[in-house]
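Subgroup meeting minutes
Present: P.N., E.W., G.H.
Scribe: E.W.

1. P.N. recapped why we're keeping a running log of single-chain structure predictions: easier to compare across weeks, and new members can see raw inputs and outputs side by side.
2. G.H. added today's entry (196 aa).
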Amino acid sequence: MGDAGVGGHTGGAGEAGQMPNLLADGISSAEGVDAFERILADGAPPQVLVSTKDLQSVFREAGESTRSLILEEVARLQQSRTAHPRPDMQVAYVAPRGELEERIAGVWQSVLGIEQVGVEDNFFDLGGHSLLATQLVSRLRELLHTEIPLRVVFERPTVAGLAEFVEQAAAEAPAEPPPAAAPIARQPRTVKRPRK
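Output recorded in log:
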C-alpha cells in the first residue's frame, strides 16, 4: 500500500495575503476523514489524489503559468544579450521576403545571437550545431504551431528551406484537428464498510 499523508503550507514572510486563497479550496477535517475512510475502504491504489477542483483545468492553469514564466525569462535573457553582426559569408545577404520568412529569421537571430540572418544563409555556417538546432526547432514549433522534425534543419538548413517545409506541412495538414479525448465516466460501486 502506498504512503498517505496531509500536506500543509504555513507561508513565509510576505505571503500573508495569499493564505486565504490557499485555504479557500481546501477541505474540512471531517471531509478529510471521510475521504480517507472511503479511500481505505476502496482498496487504495498505490497513489491517490484528492482534489476539490477539476483536475484538467488545474493542469491547464499550471501549464499556462509555467509556460508564460519560461517565455518571460527567455525574453528577459534575450534582451540582455547583445547580438553579433552577421559574419562574412560566401552567400550574399538576402532579406526575408514574407512574414513567414521574417518570423523564422527572427528565431534564428535569437538562437544564434546574430543581428541579421538572410534567407539563404546556412544555419551551420552561422555557427549552428545540433544542440542549437534542437532549440531552434522547439521555438519554431511553438511560434508556428507546426510539427518540424529535427532532421529538417539538417536537410533544409536555410530560412527559405524551412519556410518551404512549413508551407508544405500546412498544405498537407488535415482541415480539422482530431477530436479531444473524452473522460470516461466511472461506474458507481458499492462500498462495504467494516462493521464496528
